[in-house]
Amino acid sequence: MMQHSQFHVVPIKTSAGRFFEDYTIGQVIEHAVPRTVSGGERALYHALYPARHALHSSDEFARNCGLPQSPLDDMAAFHIVFGKTVPDISLNAIANLGYAQGRWLKPVYAGDTIRSTSEVIGLKQNSNGQSGVVYVRTRGLNQRDEVVLEYVRWVMVRKNDFDAPTPETVIPELAPVLTPDQLVVPESLDFTNYDFTQSGEPHRWRDYEIGETIDHVDGVTIEEAEHMIATRLWQNTAKVHFDATQRADGRRLIYGGHVISMARALSFNGLANAQMIVGLNAGAHANPCFSGDTIRAWSEVLDKAETNVPGVGAIRLRLVANNAAGAFRLKSDDGKYQPHVLLDLDYWALMPL
């Protein structure tokens, strides 16, 4: 007697990521995978970028400023938190559109374990019905469930089912700038005995004027290998950064955070004492960056404020990354970014008074 095989459907175990129709207002997403950081992160970060800010380079310098040890670079902490969100938020993204209300709330030290969580706070389907914009508030937490970093970003994400219902449009109200009282100065930070010789420059908070622009002089040519190491280091799995077949031109898009870190590192020349980033007001990846582009940077002083911490002042800076030498014009007459502008970042940093 012939026996017939019985077939059963095996559930799909892989994930294609979320699409626009998969998000709902108020949805909270706990991102995998927690990561314990070590001194290796700091060393590799400094190998990838010409990062030289003393507070993030030297335990002894950090202790002289009241901290227990040198914290992980602020942008490295951002990349770790951000990278964990990619599989859930921007795996199927067309573009990361902007940032707002970013605050560094606690330093990240070697030995800390960082995880990320995001809440959907806004949705807007595009008129073409094939994509939409998702707004999320992301938080990075340490092993004590303390929030070390939070920020809002919005991403244009593809739809998978073009017939899926159009969600109600909700666009969150986001303040364009963090006020000085919203900035958090790390506990015990004290610049009273700040060592300007060891920091690399003599320029204090009081030496900068609102409206002043600073040419950071140096340039760095982006390499494919370094970008790939960085993107893997931050566990950023966005397809456009890894898979050259995702773009018609066959080129991998350089992760925008790689451009941010490179520009921040270049800003040392002229802003060596802007030691800690504590606020992210706004950010735009104005034009795509590719391997072979040479990044140069300049900054503009937008505002200054004193804090209630000894010797510590806050300075608001615009950091612009270009792929053309001597190009200081940000936008054209029509209000659009010039084609050589890669990054326009508005942030608060802490400096000795």
Distance between the termini: 92 Å
Which word captures the global form?
A: globular
Characterize the quaternary organization of these chains.
single chain
Order of helices and strands: EHHHEEEEHEHHHHEEEE
Q: How would you state the average pLDDT, rounded? A: 94
Task: Summarize the main sheet.
Answer: 10 strands, antiparallel
Give the total of beta strands: 10
The order of strands across the largest sheet is 1-3-4-5-2-7-10-9-8-6
How large, in whole angstroms, is the Cα Rg? Answer: 22 Å
Percent of residues in beta strands? 25-35%
Structural class: alpha+beta
Low-confidence stretches: none
Helix content: 10-25%
What can you see in these coordinates?
The N and C termini lie far apart (92 Å). The relative contact order is 0.16. 18% of the residues lie in helices and 31% in strands. The protein has helices at residues 39-48, 59-64, 74-89, 196-199, 224-233, 239-242, 256-266, 268-271; strands spanning 28-36, 93-104, 113-125, 131-141, 147-158, 213-221, 276-284, 294-306, 312-322, 341-352. The chain has 353 residues and is α+β, with helices and mostly antiparallel strands. The protein contains eight helices and ten strands. A ten-stranded antiparallel sheet has the order 1-3-4-5-2-7-10-9-8-6. The model has no long low-confidence stretch (mean pLDDT 94).
